[in-house]
Write a structure and sequence with these properties.
- It is a single chain.
- It is built from three helices and twelve strands, in the order αβαββαβββββββββ.
- It is of the alpha/beta class and 176 residues long.
- Strands 1, 2, 4, 5, 7, 8, 9 and 12 form an eight-stranded mixed sheet that branches. A two-stranded antiparallel ribbon has the order 3-6.
- It is globular.
- The chain starts with a helix and ends with a strand.
């Protein structure tokens, strides 16, 4: 329950300019680039929502963490830092790379990256969660150079898309 409250606090404060990495917020944003895709964690987003999202953009499944267990807080911590966080290791304190907000509904307009995360409580890391990139010409199935499996991307696939639509290193790309 404490991790869930921290996640809610982090998402509510994501667009402010102050914060600490230790609090697992995305508000200590590095700020060295312009984030052109908003990243939105959608509460209750399920794999069953992907067919509808596929009409708006590219879709896939995301691997939330490395290690045997996962949770919202650990997946969020890795996602905002662009790392595949191993839950057997100490919590990451790297620089936050992206702003993230939380919503109850899928955004009506892109560009946006929408993602579902694991439950707030610790759970086995044996499920994959929905992700969609909406807008800027993304269509089809996402692919990451990290997983090399069409439709399966890693949470550290650099969810921010930077200046003028140029993807970051190891970008999420639609499969042709």
């Amino acid at each position: 329950m404490k991790a869930f409250r921290l996640l809610l606090l982090a998402c509510a404060c994501a667009l402010t300019l102050s914060g600490s990495a230790a609090a697992k917020t995305s508000n200590d944003f590095a700020g060295h680039h312009r984030q052109i895709f908003k990243v939105v964690v959608v509460r209750g987003l399920a794999i069953g929502d992907l067919p509808a999202l596929a009409t708006e953009g590219a879709v896939g499944l995301v691997v939330p963490n490395a290690g045997p267990r996962t949770s919202q807080a650990s997946a969020f911590a890795g996602m905002v830092r662009g790392i595949l966080y191993n839950t057997r290791l100490p919590k990451p304190h790297d620089t936050v790379l992206i702003h993230v907000r939380q919503a109850n509904e899928i955004p009506a307009h892109g560009p946006a990256i929408v993602i579902g995360l694991p439950p707030a409580t610790s759970a086995p890391n044996d499920r994959r969660y929905p992700i969609a990139v909406i807008g800027r010409g993304y269509q089809g199935v996402l692919q990451s150079s990290l997983t090399r499996v069409p439709g399966v991307v890693s949470v550290d696939s650099k969810l921010s898309v930077r200046e003028a639509g140029t993807p970051t290193a190891r970008p999420l790309t639609p499969v042709q």
